[in-house]
Design brief:
This protein is α/β, with parallel strands linked by helices and about 400 residues long. The chain is about 35% helix and about 15% strand. A seven-stranded mixed sheet has the order 1-9-8-5-4-2-3, with helices on both faces. A four-stranded antiparallel sheet has the order 10-11-13-12. Helix 2 (about 40-55) packs parallel to helix 8. The longest helix has about 30 residues, at about 240-270. The structure holds pyridoxal-5'-phosphate.
């Protein structure tokens, strides 16, 4: 029996990078006495720095990644019960965002190797009612951007990138979150940079940014003449304390991503020798929110590998979220707005999705093993995890 490994966790200080920089800025906020973004300066400063770091014109900081998706969807002015194509491998918050805006999620299949939607799978889900696409990047990888942008342009659809897991990631040199009409980010505890909870919407379009800001502020147009609550909208503001932490965190992002890559390379150098283990991505452009490996079920059982790794101190997620969103209770029972089937059943009774129609989703989830990753995992530890994976695969494979 090999000695269990001690793996830093992004749930506590072992896997996070908070220090004097965050403390200093939080102190500044507290001493200013302004904890709210409409009276303080930190949220505006974070918005400016975050937009600049991505090379986009506008950023609106919000209370969560889920809210960021909702505000982005709202900004595109979707028709009531229109459809938005999106991936069934995503966070529930990104789907609640659509439903609350009266938009029907129309699920597309994904690439079986990356578990992300691509232009071809999105195209198959477009109908006459489709008005938008939410493109879900996963694990720190960026899905193909140019083909999806071209597809959306051809069909006149709004493109929203859900980059909650993809900060610091790119595809062919193009940064995640810079190609969609809008993009959403999350700063929840586990993300690349965090304030516990938090999110942001970015865009190059001034009018879209204005609508996102209104939506975030109960539709009260701060700074405009003749203010009034213009329409129904919630409070989704970020606080000054969150922004203070995020400004400091943003300064650590580039090094954090580099560290994640260094350790990823060390792991992958070891697992190359493992029969049945694959990695499908470009390490140099991946920001490794997580380390996604594909396990060939003919050679190794993903579940057994995860159980063996857990015994050695590495707690992984076999099959990631386990099932596609349309198999979650809320979707199975159609328990949506006010407990009704709205908006999904608003026009007609839509047939339920069947997993057989989503071969990429089925295969991707069956094979994926998601290893927790963070910037405090050293290359030495990455290498050791890789060695353990290879050894376990040999042991499990030998049983067959
Ligand atoms: C792809 C994706 N979208 C949206 C969200 C929602 O973000 P939040 O938890 O900040 O609301 C998450 C959160 O994990 C996510 O992974």
């Amino acid at each position: 029996m090999r000695a269990p490994l001690v793996v830093p966790s992004d749930r506590d200080a072992t896997g996070r990078s908070f220090g004097a920089e965050e403390l200093e800025l939080v102190r500044e906020v507290l001493e200013s006495g302004s904890l709210n973004s409409n009276s303080g300066t930190m949220v505006r400063r974070f918005e400016h720095e975050f937009a600049r770091s991505l090379g986009v014109a506008r950023c609106v900081a919000v209370s969560s990644g889920s809210f960021a998706v909702q505000a982005a969807v709202f900004a595109t002015r979707p028709d009531l019960a229109s459809e938005c194509v999106t991936s069934p491998i995503t966070d529930f918050g990104a789907l609640a965002a659509l439903l609350y805006e009266g938009v029907v999620p129309s699920f597309c299949d994904v690439d079986a190797h990356t578990l992300m939607p691509v232009a071809d799978t999105i195209a198959n889900a477009i109908t006459a009612r489709t008005r938008a696409v939410v493109v879900t990047h996963l694990f720190g990888a960026t899905t193909e951007l140019a083909p999806i942008r071209a597809l959306c342009d051809r069909h006149g659809l709004a493109m929203i990138e859900d980059a909650a897991q993809a900060l610091g990631s790119s595809r062919d040199g193009v940064t995640a979150g810079t190609v969609g009409d809008l993009a959403a980010f999350s700063f929840q505890q586990s993300k690349h940079i965090t304030s516990g909870e938090g999110g942001a919407v970015v865009t190059d379009d001034d009018e879209l940014a204005r609508r996102v800001r209104l939506f975030t502020n109960k539709a009260w147009p701060y700074g405009e003449p003749d203010p009034d609550h213009r329409f129904l909208a919630p409070n989704g503001r970020m606080t000054e304390l969150q922004a203070a932490v995020l400004i400091a965190q943003l300064g650590k992002l580039a090094e954090g991503v580099e560290q994640r890559r260094r350790s990823a390379r060390a792991l992958l150098a070891e697992t190359e020798a493992a029969d049945g283990i694959g990695f499908h991505g470009n390490v140099d452009e991946h920001s490794f929110w997580r380390m996604p490996l594909l396990v060939d079920p003919e050679l190794v059982s993903c579940t057994e590998l995860a159980a063996a790794l857990a015994r050695e101190g590495v707690r992984c997620q076999a099959h990631y979220v386990g099932r596609p969103a349309f198999e979650l209770e809320a979707f199975r029972e159609r328990r949506f707005v006010a407990g009704t089937g709205f908006p999904v059943d608003y026009r007609d009774s839509r047939p339920r999705e069947r997993i057989e129609d989503f071969p990429g989703v089925r295969e991707g989830l069956a094979r994926v093993l998601v290893i927790p990753w963070n910037e405090r995992i050293s290359p030495e530890l990455g290498r050791e995890i890789g060695i353990r994976i290879t050894a376990i695969c040999r042991e499990l494979g030998g049983d067959r």
